[in-house]
Amino acid sequence: MSIEDDLRHLGGRLGADVDRFVAEGKAKLTADAIAHPQPLFALLRTVKPVLHIHDIAIVTRYPDVVEVLTNDEAFGVAPYNEKMQALVGDFILGLDDSPEYERDISILRLAAPRSDLPAMISFVTETADALVAEAAARDGRVEVPDLAKRVPARLVGRWFGTPGPDEDKLIEWACAMFEDIFVNVTNDPKIHAAALAAVGEWKPYLAGVIADRKASGAHAEDVLGRLIAMQANPDTVFTDEQIAANLIGLMTGFVPTIATATTFALDVLLDHPDALASAHDAAVADDDDQVRAIIWEGMRLAPQGPGLIRRALTDFTVGEGTMHASTIKAGTVTFAATQSAMLDPDVVEDPNGFHAGRPAHDYLHFGAGLHQCFGRFANSMQIPLIAKALLRQPNLARAPGDAGKLVKAGPYPTTMAVTFDA
C-alpha cells in the first residue's frame, strides 16, 4: 500500500473527510520531511538507499551521491536549465559538459579570479565587524540572518560592480530567484511568479548599469568591468545580454546560500557550548583556519540545503556491485542527498557528533564534479568570516525567549537574534 492508501484507510476509520484528510496528511508529512529530513535519510540509507517514487529517484548513501554528482555522462543538470531558461537564459549551472560550458566557465573564471580573494577577505571582515558594531550599539543584539544577508549583498556591489538599486532590493531579487530555481520542486506558480517579477526588474537594471559603464569608458577592476573589457574580442566573449544573464546567475547563488549557511551553522554552535567556546577562542586569536573548521562542521550537521538535483541521461545502475544496486532509468529526476551523505556512518566517523577538522572528503557543502559551486572559493572565505565577527564577541548567546530561536520562511532563515557583552 502507498502512503496515500494508508491515509485514506485511517481517515475512513476516523470518520473524517477522506480527501481532505489525505491532502492535509500528505502536506504535513512532506513539510516534516523537508524541515527534519535526517530521520528519513537515516531510514533510507539503511532499508532503501536508492528510493524510486514515480519518476523520481532519491539517492542517500555517500558513495552513491558522489557517483551521481561526478558522473556527468550519466546525469545532467536539465532540471536547473529549464528553470534558468524560463527566467534569464543560459547560465553555467544549467549547461551540461559541452564546448559551450567550457567557454562560458572559462570567461567567468577570468572575470572572477581567485586572486581577488585577499581584497575580498579585507572587505568582508571590515563589513561584518561594522555591521555587528552598529547592531550592538543600536539595541544590544544582532539578527544573524540579516547580518548574513547584508555582508554578501555589499560584496556583490563591490566585487561584481552591481549593487542593485538598493541593498534590500538586491536581496529580494536574489532570494526570489534562488527559491524558484533550487527549491520550487513542485513548481508552485506563486514562487515562479515572484521570480519572474524579480528578473523583470533585475534585467533592465543590469542593462542600464552595463550601458552606463560602457558609455563612461571606465572598466573598473570588478567582475562587470572585466567582462566589458573582454568584449574587445567579440568572437570569444559575452554579449551584453549574456553578461546580464551570467551575473544574475552568479548573484542568485551568492546571497541566499551564504546567509542560510552562516545562520544554520551558528544555530548549531549555539547548541554545542564546547564548540562555541572553541570557536570564540579561535576567532579572538584570528585563527581563521580553525574558525573555518568549526563552521564547516556546523554546516555539515545543518547544511543550507538537503541535496542537489540531476536528471538521468541514460539508464544507469547506482551502487553497482553492492547489495543495494539500483538502475535509474533515463529521464528520471535524481535527488542526490548531500545532507544524508555527510551523515553516512559507513564513510563519516561518528556522523552525529561534532568534530571539527574532519577529512575534507567528509564535506559536500559545495557539491562535487563538474558543477561544484563556482563561488566556492569566495564562499569558503566569506561564511566563516561573517560568523567570526560574532564569534569573537564575549559571551555570545541566543537572545532570550523566542527572539533567539531560529525561524524560517520557506527555505530562508528570517530571525535568530544573539546577544553578547559589549
Describe the SSE topology:
Layout: H1 3-14, H2 18-35, H3 38-47, E1 50-53, E2 56-59, H4 62-70, E3 75-76, H5 78-87, H6 99-111, H7 117-139, E4 141-143, H8 144-160, H9 167-183, H10 189-216, H11 223-230, H12 240-252, H13 255-270, H14 273-284, H15 288-301, E5 308-312, E6 316-318, E7 326-328, E8 333-336, H16 338-341, H17 376-391, E9 397-398, E10 407-409, E11 412-415, E12 417-419
Parallel strand pairs: 2-8
Antiparallel strand pairs: 1-2, 3-5, 4-12, 5-8, 6-7, 9-12, 10-11
Helix pairs in contact: 1-2, 5-9, 6-11, 7-8, 7-17, 8-9, 8-13, 8-17, 9-10, 10-12, 13-15, 13-17, 14-15, 15-17
Strand order of the largest sheet: 1-2-8-5-3
* Shape annotation: globular
CATH topology heading: Cytochrome p450
- Annotated CATH architecture: Orthogonal Bundle
Mean of pLDDT: 90
> What percentage of residues falls in helices of 4 or more residues?
55-70%
Rg over CA atoms:
22 Å
Count of DSSP-assigned helices: 17
What's the main sheet like?
5 strands, mixed
Number of beta strands: 12
CATH superfamily: Cytochrome P450
- Poorly predicted ranges: none
Oligomeric state: single chain
**What would you call the structural class?**
alpha+beta
- Give the percentage of residues in beta strands: 5-15%
Q: In short, what is this structure?
A:
This protein has 422 residues and is α+β, with helices and mostly antiparallel strands. The protein contains 17 helices and 12 strands.
